[in-house]
Amino acid sequence: MGMRFTVLSSGSTGNATVVDNGETKVLIDVGFSAKKMELLMKERELAASSIDAILVTHEHSDHIKGLGAFARKYDLPIYANEKTWEELDRQIGVIAEGNKRVMETGGVAEFGTMRVESFGISHDAAEPVGYCLYEGEQKLSVVTDLGYMSEKVKEKITDSDAMVLETNHDVDMLRVGHYPWSIKRRILGDKGHLSNEAAGEALCDVMTNKTKSVYMAHLSRDHNLMDLARLTVNNIVQERAPESKQLRLMDTYFDRSTKWDVLDSE
């Protein structure tokens, strides 16, 4: 069947994505309680017990809130780099030693025919990463929670069939918003979050004729709007790459899952 994925939920309150190749189901982040995760999966007719492994991007609570409980309940291996594990050990409770898997940044893990590669990103966490997942010639990139898109990150995610890409905030909305300046400065900084504009500019550098869908993720509920994010990114793409007619900009939601997206098998 090739590879398919669903963004179970994305935003400052929680994040989780499932990738499935027909034989193996991998969960990226567990940003909700185990009970909420089960409900989100049920929306996609997916049994929580069918998950084979968990990949962790970083240790912030909106990515690991239910990690310990979910992994213990379903006896799942957790993959993260050493610095992230140092933080996880203090936050998620006891995990069976056999389920604590170290996947260093830049490393590769294989789950049957699915291959997963991690890469470093810039965020205010111990050692945050994004992931590229491969099934044959298919490629899915998941990259959120980064202050800027470095050339190394661009190199990693270029030529993806699909991406889950952060469009966290509109810069003007954030600047006039109610957050204290210290928090605004963090979000706008190199270790903060990617704005709509920055995401659009980066997308133009990494998409190819192969790229069919981009899921706009981790939207701020206070300083962004779905329509605004889509309009901003689309305007930049149409200005810089007007030939990209096949590209679909897709919404993600803080309270429900996206439909399964099945990558082309060609």
Summary keywords:
7-stranded mixed β-sheet, 9 helices, alpha/beta, MBL fold metallo-hydrolase, WalJ/YycJ-like, Metallo-B-lactamas, 29% helix, 266 residues, RibonucZ/Hydroxyglut_hydro
Describe this structure in words.
The protein is α/β, with parallel strands linked by helices. Helix content is 29%, strand content 24%. The chain is built from 9 helices and 14 strands. It has helices at 34-43, 61-64, 67-74, 82-91, 151-157, 171-175, 181-188, 196-206, 226-240, and strands at residues 4-9, 16-20, 25-28, 53-55, 78-80, 100-102, 108-111, 114-120, 129-135, 138-143, 162-166, 213-217, 248-251, 261-262. A 7-stranded mixed beta sheet has the order 6-5-4-3-2-1-14. It has a 7-stranded mixed beta sheet with strand order 7-8-9-10-11-12-13. Helix 4 links the parallel strand 5 and strand 6. It is globular. 47% of the residues are buried. The mean pLDDT is 96. Counteracts the endogenous Pycsar antiviral defense system. Phosphodiesterase that enables metal-dependent hydrolysis of host cyclic nucleotide Pycsar defense signals such as cCMP and cUMP. InterPro entries: Metallo-B-lactamas, RibonucZ/Hydroxyglut_hydro, WalJ/YycJ-like. Residues 13-178 form the Metallo-beta-lactamase domain.
How much helix, percentage-wise, in residues?
25-40%
What can be said about the biggest beta sheet? 7 strands, mixed
The general outline is globular
Q: Tell me the structural class.
A: alpha/beta
Tally of contiguous helical segments:
9
Q: What's the assembly state of these chains?
A: single chain
